[in-house]
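Input (structure):
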């Protein structure tokens, strides 16, 4: 993955950084030189961290946009001193612009990684190729490489024609890299009879001329058993369970018993007449 981050980041964020340099009372030449060196330094140091600490640390710094943690891994005062001497300015003017340049560099790499779904491996490959691209794009002093912790590639020379800073070339390479980084969906086994067929085109969604979708054979209808009892088909009917049938039977027996008791003829007691004795009976 050889997309040149150095010219892309500078061209994308230079207008905003120029405004910040103007606020810090820096000349356009001072601002341009400071931002170019800071972007190159940031990318070179990320490549050094990738080589020394592994891809996990670099991927973590980028995902968290951690500019402060980035400065914990490098001699910040020494870098400020070199830059102040280079552009003839002092730290109160240069430090905010340097910090912001490091921040937008990490942000831009994160945006690219997130948009293209590069992942840890893709980001590592992207960062790994930046030192040689920086040498090709712009001459850089030895102190910058030494402070960033990486040996300057000696087999690479600046390009005679600076095509890396062409906005159209940068945008074209960015789009090409993002297309190549898209995850290819895994191939699935095709149903029998479609081994020689073709799938719909991914970009247009149109079916090829000879594309056909296999239709599974119809399942044969199963005949009902001859002696099968009739089935009650009624919406919502679920039938009586065994327990419900027993309860209904008991209730019917109870009602029948009560009815039998009440319908039985009552045994009438014989009516006894007691004779009346006259107390004053005269013979």
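Output (sequence):
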């Amino acid at each position: 993955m050889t997309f040149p981050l150095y010219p892309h980041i500078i061209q994308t964020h230079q207008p905003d950084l120029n405004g910040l340099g103007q606020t810090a009372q820096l000349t356009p030449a001072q601002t341009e030189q400071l931002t170019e060196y800071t972007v190159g330094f940031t990318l070179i140091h990320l490549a050094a961290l990738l080589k020394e600490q592994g891809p996990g640390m670099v991927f973590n710094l980028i995902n968290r946009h951690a500019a402060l943690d980035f400065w914990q891994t490098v001699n910040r005062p020494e870098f400020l001193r070199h830059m102040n001497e280079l552009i003839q300015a002092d730290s109160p003017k240069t430090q905010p612009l340097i910090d912001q340049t490091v921040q937008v560099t990490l942000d831009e790499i994160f945006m690219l990684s997130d948009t293209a779904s590069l992942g840890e491996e893709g980001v590592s490959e992207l960062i790994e190729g930046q030192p040689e691209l920086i040498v090709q794009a712009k001459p850089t002093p030895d102190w910058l490489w030494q402070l960033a912790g990486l040996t300057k590639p000696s087999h690479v020379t600046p390009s005679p024609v600076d095509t890396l800073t062409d906005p159209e070339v940068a945008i074209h390479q960015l789009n090409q890299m993002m297309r190549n980084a898209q995850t290819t969906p895994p191939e699935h086994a095709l149903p029998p009879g479609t081994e020689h067929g073709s799938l719909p085109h991914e970009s247009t969604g149109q079916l090829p001329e000879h594309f056909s979708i296999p239709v599974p054979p119809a399942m044969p209808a199963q005949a009902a058993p001859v002696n099968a009892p009739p089935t009650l088909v009624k919406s919502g009917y679920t039938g009586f369970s065994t327990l419900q049938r027993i309860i209904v039977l008991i209730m019917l027996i109870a009602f029948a018993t009560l009815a039998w008791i009440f319908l039985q003829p009552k045994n009438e007691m014989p009516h006894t007449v007691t004779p009346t004795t006259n107390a004053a009976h005269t013979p």
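Notes: Residues 5-181 form one domain. Residues 28-53 form the longest helix (26 residues).
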